[in-house]
Amino acid sequence: MSSNTDVSLSSYDENQRSKFVRKAKEAPFVPIGMAGFAAIVAYGLYKLKNRGNTKMSLHLIHMRVAAQGFAVGAMTIGMGYSMYKEYWANSKP
């Protein structure tokens, strides 16, 4: 059994930051969704102290739904934007 050591690893030379930047340029609303998700989670943790009489489980469910809604909304808008860019913006006669 021989091993081939001449395998090109150029696709693996990309570090995490450059990969993230490349992916963000391809789909710009995904990082926006990630940032919104993180912001809602941070806000939820901040408001955790001042939730009043609301149960902890109910507060966490509301924060999860808000964060997921923001992320799904950003992905949906991003999909619409990429469809517009691919199909309608390039179809000029």
Automatic annotation (TrEMBL):
<keyword id="KW-0812">Transmembrane</keyword>
<keyword id="KW-0472">Membrane</keyword>
<feature type="transmembrane region" description="Helical">
    <location>
        <begin position="65"/>
        <end position="84"/>
    </location>
</feature>
<dbReference type="Pfam" id="PF04588">
    <property type="entry name" value="HIG_1_N"/>
</dbReference>
<dbReference type="InterPro" id="IPR050355">
    <property type="entry name" value="RCF1"/>
</dbReference>
<feature type="domain" description="HIG1">
    <location>
        <begin position="1"/>
        <end position="93"/>
    </location>
</feature>
<feature type="transmembrane region" description="Helical">
    <location>
        <begin position="27"/>
        <end position="45"/>
    </location>
</feature>
<protein>
    <submittedName>
        <fullName>HIG1 domain family member 1A, mitochondrial-like</fullName>
    </submittedName>
</protein>
<keyword id="KW-1133">Transmembrane helix</keyword>
<dbReference type="InterPro" id="IPR007667">
    <property type="entry name" value="Hypoxia_induced_domain"/>
</dbReference>
